[in-house]
Amino acid sequence: MQLKLITFIILLTFVGCISPGSKSKKGNLNISFEVNKKDGIQPSYSTVIWLEKPDGSLVKTLYVSDYLSLGGFNDPKMCPDWSSKSNWANTPRDEADAVTGATPMIGKRDYSFKLSKKDLPPGKYNYFIEVHIMEAYNELYTGTIEIPCKETDGKAQVTYLPVKHSLAGDILSNVTLICN
Known about the structure:
globular; alpha+beta; four-stranded antiparallel β-sheet; 19% helix
């Protein structure tokens, strides 16, 4: 009798571990940054946030500002890394509408993405935040995350495209990602 009870408890534990309700949660991806005012120039501040696989293939656009979404993606000078990979012109309208938002205004900005709703398989991903300044000048902020989320709190690395704008400095500052 005692052996049957122990077997039953082990079986329940095993079933509980593999049942759909017990899957590890993918968590939230929280990205924050400050958009800085720049004297002497008028940046476009068009911004896009996306995920890629380590091999460089685009997985999912998480956020794209209005102007960029509605046609700015056709300008090869505007957020060129994302524009060249996204195939945005062929993105279904409902998917595009779901991730399109207002162009970030000056000040602190916080974005939260529920990864469980993004249909992302477990694995390592690179995240990107690209912001257009003006003409051919852009800033690209990058980092890595792992899904399901492990407690991550990291600062993004910045690359200036083609070089750092002499008047812009950093359009974004305090770019931080928290995955939990």
